[in-house]
Design a protein that fits this description.
alpha/beta; Rossmann fold; 6-stranded mixed beta sheet; 4 helices; 6 strands
């Protein structure tokens, strides 16, 4: 799994907590960014988008990683992460964008959270998504840190 990080990046000082905010551009993800800014404004935020790990030939990568993994997946993920980081900064967070690829979204989220030793993970969820097999459920099931799940807005809200 290769992670793309923009060249200019804030690195928190020793002991400074970070949060990992998951962002895919959906209404639920936008609301999650806003909730993170409201509730966790004093923490540094890494806004992450996880790209599917597919090879340039369309096949699935080998478990050990595959050098022919499609670079457009990671580049597209970084564009989405940058949009989420911009939203987070407008909401008042000290935020940076980050992209990674993984066999599944939850695996990418948990791996980056572990790497960062994030204080918490913030993830948005569709109103009907908090069920077994959803990204938010799988993150909660596998993360070794607190997870804040923010539901998508209801019809007519936000």
């Amino acid at each position: 799994m290769e992670t793309i990080v923009p060249a200019v990046m804030h690195r928190p000082e020793a002991g400074e907590a970070e949060i990992l905010v998951c962002y895919d551009g959906s209404d639920g993800a936008k609301r999650a960014v806003d909730a993170a800014a409201l509730l966790l404004a004093r923490l540094h935020a890494v806004v992450l988008n996880v790209a599917p790990a597919t090879r340039a030939d369309g096949g699935a990568p080998q478990p050990s990683g595959d050098a022919s993994e499609h670079p457009n997946n990671r580049a597209d993920a970084l564009i989405r992460a940058e949009a989420g980081a911009a939203r987070a900064r407008r909401a008042g967070l000290d935020a940076e964008a980050r992209a990674t690829s993984a066999p599944s979204t939850w695996q990418g989220i948990v791996a980056v959270a572990d790497e960062l030793e994030a204080a918490a993970i913030v993830v948005g969820a569709a109103r009907d998504e908090a069920v077994r097999g959803s990204v938010s459920h799988d993150v909660v099931a596998h993360a070794r840190r607190p997870v804040l799940i923010v539901p998508a807005p209801t019809e007519g809200a936000d």
